[in-house]
Each structure stands twice: as C-alpha cells, then as structure tokens.
Design goal:
170 residues, Membrane protein YqaA, SNARE-associated domain, 11 helices, transmembrane, transmembrane helix, mainly alpha
Length: 170
C-alpha cells in the first residue's frame, strides 16, 4: 500500500513539476521528509526528469503557436519578440537579445546565462516567475542553451537540497 502511495506521489510530483507556475517543490520536500535519506535520490532524479521534460516541450513547441497564443492574450510586445526570434540561430538570438535588453542587465544575464538560470531555479518563490517547469520551458523555447548543457546545469543546480537530505537524513 505504501509503495503505491509513494509511486503515485512521485508521478504527481513529476507531472506538477513539469507544469509552469506550479509550486511542486513542496511535494518533493514532503516526499523527502516522508522517505528520509532514501527518498532524496528519488526526488532528485524525478526533478531532473520533470525539468528535462519541460525543456524538451519548450524546444519542440512551434514558435508560430506561441506567437498566436501571445497575440490572443494581447501580449503584443512578447508576440513580436517571438516572431523576430523565430528565424534566428543561437548566436543571432544572443546578439538580438543583447541589443534589446537594458545595457546594464544584458551582459550579466546573457554572458552568465547558466548561472542566471541556476539562480532562477533556486529562488524562493520562483513559482511567481514560472516555477522550475516554466523556467525550463522558456529556456527550451529560447534555444540559446543546448540540451546537454541544460541537463548538466540542472544536475548541479537542483542538487543542494536532495544532497542535504541524503547526507543528514531529513
């Protein structure tokens, strides 16, 4: 019985963590508290899987679909940005974003984009900016971070809390 409850909670955790604006980390913390150090690795791997799924979904969503959704929501500046970024490759996107962003923020956010993503993923209350699922989705949609680099970034960025639970047993 307990195994099926844990399995259901893990499936729910992966599903909720992959969805933007869902504060699913609380489920992960509850699982780690319930399972102790044994559950830390499981929650870590599930978080890695969920955020990878969000990234892949973001990478595969057609920009025209995003453009139409943003237009329908009357987010004209965002829809125009998506339309302008669509034909560009990674280097052209970085240059375009560097030109469009405020002069003081652009070098910091674009040159240290991996650090900025890791910080955003670990911000308390990041559900307000999309949560882990939303951040991963947008990073995938941006196409300025390759998948293998994102997986490595995730592996490091999400490790502290599960590692603490693993070492100290929750």
């Amino acid at each position: 019985m307990l195994n099926s409850i844990v399995l259901g909670a893990i499936f729910l955790y992966i599903l909720l963590m992959a969805i933007p604006f869902m504060p699913a980390i609380e489920i992960g913390l509850a699982l780690m508290l319930m399972l102790g150090s044994k559950g830390a690795l499981l929650v870590y791997l599930c978080t890695l899987a969920a955020l990878s799924i969000s990234f892949i979904v973001g990478r595969t969503i057609p920009p025209r679909l995003v453009y139409r959704l943003l237009k329908w929501l009357h987010l004209d500046k965002a829809s125009t940005l998506v339309q302008q970024l669509e034909p560009l490759n990674q280097q052209e996107r970085l240059k375009f974003l560097n030109d469009k962003m405020p002069a003081k923020a652009a070098p910091l956010l674009l040159n240290y984009r991996y650090l900025a993503i890791a910080a955003a993923l670990n911000l308390p209350g990041n559900a307000l900016i999309g949560g882990g699922g939303g951040i991963s989705l947008v990073v995938g949609m941006s196409k300025i971070v390759p998948f293998h680099a994102f997986i490595l970034l995730l592996a490091i960025a999400i490790a502290p809390v599960p590692l603490w639970f693993y070492l100290f047993g929750g």
